[in-house]
Design goal:
Helix content: under 10%
Largest sheet: 4 strands, antiparallel
Order of helices and strands: HHEEEEEEE
CATH topology of one domain: Immunoglobulin-like
Strand content: over 45%
Oligomer: single chain
Shape: elongated
Length: 142
């Protein structure tokens, strides 16, 4: 006699767990790994460049701001379709949103951030500013 589960005959509990487990019910498309778009950050000589993959969106969908040393990128989309026929009504809707935040180095000019969106890729350019080194002050011992 074996105490292991037989994979050919899953229990009712495992079927119910699979049904209510949204990761399995909706497949890999809705798992947490896909809720945030992939991001590349490049440190160039005079700029930082951020690339964020977000296909199927419009540039108006994005909200981007820099505040207190934090760059925030968010997006929210809603879509509804309704088809009425004499025998049925079909209504489909979808909603998606994400938000990403990044700490911005002190050498970034907050007011000098540019964003472009084309072909499913959001590109941000953060220009670096010259940062003065802290001045050294000689203290005399008395």
């Amino acid at each position: 006699m074996s105490l292991t589960k037989n994979p050919q005959f899953p229990s009712l509990k495992s079927w119910m767990d699979d049904f209510w487990n949204t990761d399995k019910f909706f497949s890999d498309r809705f798992t947490t790994k896909d809720l945030f778009p992939a991001v590349n950050v490049k440190d160039r000589e005079n700029t930082y460049e951020i690339e964020l993959t977000a296909p199927g969106l419009k540039k108006e969908d994005f909200k981007i701001h820099v505040e207190n040393g934090v760059l925030s990128i968010s997006c929210e989309t809603k879509k509804e379709e309704e088809e009425k026929n004499e025998k049925f009504t079909r209504k489909e809707f979808s909603y998606s949103a994400f938000s990403r935040s990044f700490s911005v180095p002190e050498n970034v000019a907050d007011e000098d951030v540019e964003a472009r969106y084309e072909n499913g890729l959001l590109r941000l350019t953060l220009k670096k500013k010259a940062v003065e080194a802290p001045k050294k002050k000689q203290i005399e011992v008395q």
